[in-house]
Design brief:
- The complex is a heterodimer.
- By secondary structure, chain A is α/β, with parallel strands linked by helices.
- Chain A has helices at residues 43-50, 73-83, 99-108, 114-127, 143-155, 173-190, 201-204, 230-235; strands spanning 2-12, 18-28, 32-36, 58-63, 84-87, 161-165, 193-198, 209-214, 217-223.
- Chain A has a 6-stranded mixed β-sheet, sandwiched between helices. Chain A has a 3-stranded antiparallel β-sheet with strand order 2-1-4, covered by helices on one side.
- In chain A, α3 packs across α4 (114-127) and α5 (143-155) packs parallel to α6.
- Chain B is α+β, with helices and mostly antiparallel strands.
- Chain B folds into 2 domains: 3-53 and 274-412, no CATH class; 60-267, no CATH class.
- In chain B, 57% of the residues lie in helices and 16% in strands.
- Chain B has helices spanning 3-15, 18-54, 75-80, 86-93, 130-137, 149-153, 163-170, 212-220, 238-253, 268-311, 313-321, 326-365, 377-404, 407-412, and strands at 60-65, 101-110, 114-116, 119-121, 124-128, 143-144, 158-161, 179-182, 185-192, 198-199, 202-203, 207-211, 227-232, 263-267.
- In chain B, the strands form 2 sheets. In chain B, strands 1, 2, 3, 4, 5, 6, 7, 8, 9, 12, 13 and 14 form a 12-stranded mixed β-sheet that branches. Chain B has a two-stranded antiparallel ribbon with strand order 10-11.
- In chain B, β10 and β11 form a beta hairpin.
- The radius of gyration of chain B is 33 Å and the shape is elongated.
- The chains are: A alpha/beta, B alpha+beta.
């Protein structure tokens, strides 16, 4: 089933720069896709559009069959909350706040009863292997651990898709490896749809399919035959 | 997002920035504390003054010569007006004229000092009836006696002195029976008042009381009185007595139009009302000056909220990306501002009450005033409401700015 679909998406800014010049592709449920391209190729702009954080100037983007215009502002917030998970390069955890509180943050906006929040958040933390860090403040964690907290936060509402924007960009190779291992596990074992943005070919090859952007246009859309196995790499 | 979540989020936000939160509320704390202090002191001053005036009794009526003063410049003409004379007193005493009159005394103020064997003191010298004075102020000589009607009729050179005057002139030795000099004229001390302190506008300890006839003829050499004090038979009949007094005096002075009155009648109630109005206006004025501090405090809150919004742009963006609506963000920042100022209000009320209590203690102990500490509950409630309102008013704009931030801009912000 098609989860999201782009048709001739263009995005221009008031200063005249054209970030996207007609991009079309679609993503099925359960796919693991990497979007690649050099800086300035429009990767981040594309992710913002995919995440309903920004609207295209031309073309049509459907998520779950609906466009951004079909929703009111508050409904967009609800879609982001319930159906999308975000992982950022800079982690974006709340400082001076515990791991548990950070992971609970999306639940605050989802109308889930307070009594249930701790349990749901604990489970998400467990799934990224940080049960022993629940009460730690985010600043006490290593970069790799922070990104795992961010993944737990993205998972906590059980979204339809996880958007990961350069999740290994601020990490050393070993921590990056762990992050990719988790994302791959989420995809294979839990069936999550994952859209990964990266500029590293090596990282991108953990996905099933790579979409390359160049100057705001789709350069290629290829399936990966020999997918990197994060665990295998890690064990070597 | 539920309201209790917004409040909790706001609290967490404030706790993570303790020093800044404290400095921000300082302006509110000082503003509210100052309002409480002003109101408490205002109330204390009012009850102090009203108690002292109350000492004179509600039945007391004062007749003064001249026109009723409407400003400070009119007081001089009252002091030098000479329209109240013996025949007026005689007319007032006549039974049919003022039926509610039970007692009457002319009063004269004599400038000058008293001396005894080289010791000199500058007291308040008053000419009055001894009996009436003692009754009105409820004070009787501790040693010796009061002068009586005979002394008044004979312009006797007798005097009753206050405790401080006795101390200054005679130290510890007995004053009764000694002769002191007032304006170089000899007077025999017949009585000494016990220590009493401030009553109405006199300090009785520093008083020298002589028969009013002696003061008028012998000391001042004038044919008029400075004021005439009358006691009515009850507080209820004061109004009627005042009317009777006015009619009697107009007749005695051949006045037909009340506008030409060369005297005026004051009652304790009128005085109390006047003082209440003056003190109320003063308190309101001071409080409104202090209220400016609250506005300044509010601007401080707004300033910090703006800094906070800018500083937490990333946090706002993140929250929005994770599903916070504009309303969620607005409420979060609004609650932060209101919580901040409400805490400031509570701290300010506690601080203000403490300071008022200390002020009451100092005024009572050091200045020897019968100062009563009053905690102004309406002012405290008002202060709390105002501080929360300040938070709302000055927090709204920054909170609106926060809620309007675009999540992309906010996430990109480093």
């Amino acid at each position: 089933m098609v989860l999201l679909e782009l048709k001739n998406i263009e995005k221009g800014y008031p200063d005249g720069t054209q970030a996207l010049r007609g991009v079309s592709f679609s993503v099925h449920e359960g796919e693991f896709i990497a979007i690649m391209g050099p800086s300035g190729s429009g990767k981040s702009t594309l992710l913002h559009i995919l995440g309903f954080l920004d609207s295209p100037t031309k073309g049509e983007y459907r998520f779950d069959g609906k466009t951004m215009q079909d929703y009111a502002k508050d409904e967009l917030a609800r879609i982001r909350n319930k159906k999308m998970g975000f992982v950022f390069q800079a982690f974006n955890l709340l400082p001076r706040t515990s791991v548990l509180e950070n992971v609970k943050l999306p639940l605050l906006y989802s109308g889930i009863k307070e009594s249930l929040r701790n349990e749901i958040a604990q489970r998400a933390i467990e799934s990224v292997g940080l049960s022993n860090r629940v009460r730690h403040e985010s600043s006490q964690l290593s970069g790799g651990e922070k990104q795992r907290v961010a993944i737990a936060r993205a998972l906590v509402n059980n979204p339809a898709v996880i958007f990961a924007d350069e999740p290994t960009g601020n990490l050393d190779s070993k921590s990056g490896q762990t992050i990719m291992e988790i994302l791959q596990w989420l995809h294979e074992e839990k069936g999550y749809t994952i859209i990964l943005i990266t500029h590293e070919t090596y990282t991108a090859e953990h996905a099933q399919r790579i979409i390359r952007l160049l100057d705001g246009k789709l350069e290629s859309d290829t399936k990966i035959i020999n997918q990197h196995r994060a665990r295998n790499q890690f064990e070597k | 997002m539920m309201v209790q979540d917004s409040i909790r989020t706001a609290f967490t936000g404030l706790k993570t920035n303790k020093t800044r939160s404290f400095l921000t509320i300082l302006g509110i704390v000082i503003g509210i504390a100052a309002v409480i202090l002003m109101m408490s002191i205002g109330q204390g001053a009012e009850s102090l003054i009203l108690n002292q005036i109350g000492g004179l009794g509600a039945e007391t009526i004062v007749v003064r010569p001249g026109k009723e003063p409407t400003g400070p410049s009119d007081i001089g003409q009252t002091l030098f007006a000479n329209s109240l004379k013996t025949r007026d007193v005689e007319a007032l005493v006549k039974k049919g004229n003022v039926p509610n009159l039970v007692q009457i005394t002319p009063v004269l103020m004599v400038p000058g000092s008293v001396s005894f064997e080289g010791e000199t003191f500058r007291p308040t010298i008053l000419g009055s009836s001894g009996e009436f004075f003692a009754e009105v102020f409820n004070i009787y000589p501790a040693q010796g006696v009061l002068f009586d009607e005979n002394d008044i009729r004979q312009n006797a050179s007798v005097v009753v002195i206050g405790s401080r005057v006795a101390e200054e002139l005679f130290a510890s030795s007995d004053a009764v029976g000694e002769y002191i000099k007032i304006r170089d004229k000899k007077f025999r001390v017949v009585g000494v008042f016990p220590p009493k302190g401030q009553v109405s506008f006199f300090n009785i300890n520093e008083l020298v009381l002589v028969p009013y006839t002696t003061a008028q003829v012998y000391l001042l050499g004038i044919d008029y009185f400075h004021e005439v004090i009358i006691k009515a038979d009850s507080a209820e009949s004061v109004g009627r007595a005042v009317r009777d007094i006015e009619i009697t005096l107009r007749e005695s002075h051949n006045i037909t139009d009340p506008k030409d009155d060369d005297f005026f009648v004051a009652t304790q109630q009128a005085l109390v009302d006047q003082i209440r109005i003056i003190l109320g206006a003063l308190t309101a004025f001071l409080s409104s000056v202090v209220a400016i501090a609250l506005v300044v405090g509010g601007i401080g809150v707004m300033n910090i909220m703006f800094v906070s919004v800018t500083e937490r742009t990333r946090e706002i963006g993140l929250r929005k990306a994770l599903g916070a609506t504009e309303k969620d963000i607005l409420l979060q920042f609004l609650f932060e501002a209101v919580t901040l100022t409400a805490i400031g209000g509570v701290v300010g009320i506690i601080l203000g009450a403490t300071l008022s209590f200390l002020a009451a203690l100092v005024l009572g102990k050091i200045l020897g005033l019968a100062w009563i500490f009053t905690f102004p509950i309406p002012a405290a409630l008002l202060g709390l409401g105002v501080s929360a309102l300040v938070g709302f008013v000055f927090g709204l704009y920054p909170a609106m700015q926060a809620s309007k931030k675009s999540p992309i801009e906010a996430l990109r912000y480093e």
